Amino acid sequence: MSVAEEFHRLYGYAPEGVWAAPGRVNLIGEYTDFNDGLVMPLALPHTAVAAVSRRGDGRLRVHSADTGQGVVQLDAGTLEPRADTGWAAYPAGVLWALREAGHAVGGADIHLASTVPTGAGLSSSAALEVVTALALNDLYGLGLSAPELAVLGQRAENAFVGVPCGVMDQMASACCTEGHALYLDTRDLSTRQVPFDLDARGLRLLVVDTRVKHALGDGAYAERRAGCEAGARALGVRTLREVEYAQLPDALRRLGDETVRSYVRHVVSDNHRVERTIALLDAGDVRAVGPVLSQGHASLRDDLRVSCPELDLVVSVATGAGALGARMTGGGFGGSAVVLVEAGAADTVTKAVTEAFAAAGYTAPRVFPAVPSKGARRVG
Predict the structure, then answer these.
(1) Is 33 a catalytic residue?
(2) Catalytic pick from 33, 109, 169, 209?
(3) In a 10 Å sphere around its CB, with 0-12 CB exposed, 13-18 middle and 19+ buried, how is residue 104 labelled?
(4) What is the pLDDT, as a whole number, of residue 218?
(5) Range 140-159 average pLDDT
(6) pTM above 0.85, yes or no
(7) Whose CB among 96, 173, 320, 368 lies 3.0–4.6 Å from 130's, allowing a Cys bridge?
């Protein structure tokens, strides 16, 4: 049954439209976006799809095909941040953020279905936020741009849901284009669509979902953000983006707290890795990106300490089986890794990782190619 048909079954009438917004995988640049840093995500073919209609009575009714729960009913005028509304906090938070920003948005009926794996570090929550924001933008004629919708989605997650994420996930879902990676400067939200046609170069970018679930709301993400902000204060800068890579050794000598020092080292060096990656892609030297990915994983594992045994196993086994490079992607503590491989070695690397997981007694991973796909759009 399509989302439009399910909407009709739930609410008794046809939706005004259907919209889709993708999950994303981040090639390079992790924990940099809330430091005004550089990132390079790409949209996945996996999407959150929403059938939506306006309501004139200020009621918000939301339903997900993926939760096994019934319709959640809320009052748009009395939405409160951090209220315990479960998964419905993501679409509800978007409605709240739009109204808080002064946009004349009333109620809505929403039915959602998503193919973005949850807990895999592939931005399933951002996809829900962006698809809701785009649908309400279209239906209420708000005229907001894709970056503006992304910022509203981020505000929903920060202020309403309570996760202090940066803006990368929402920008990727809203702004990515097919066949490209998104080079995003989160300081000013400037973007460049970078051609990323791996097939033409005989390469694959594999996503390995470890199936280890993480929850960024558990405090670990917030602790690292707070540590980065403490580092910026200690260095007398507004954000760590202001620390140039050439200045990093001196900056580290000025920091007394070892944990803060390690966080600063990661963020500044990962911004530099994004710059190296874009230079390599511009030069057409895509294979040389592999070692940069592996260096990024070492930094996430050792300095930021957000990896886990399953992610480390993916990286070590994949590179040992001939991958050009690999790293964890997303918030960490589980989730997914990206692996850059020659197309002819993709099956060999996949087999090696799957067998290593079995030998370690881990749940079998899910492995699929990352195909740079379209951002959020109306589909019906």
Answers:
(1) no
(2) 169
(3) exposed
(4) 63
(5) 96
(6) yes
(7) 173
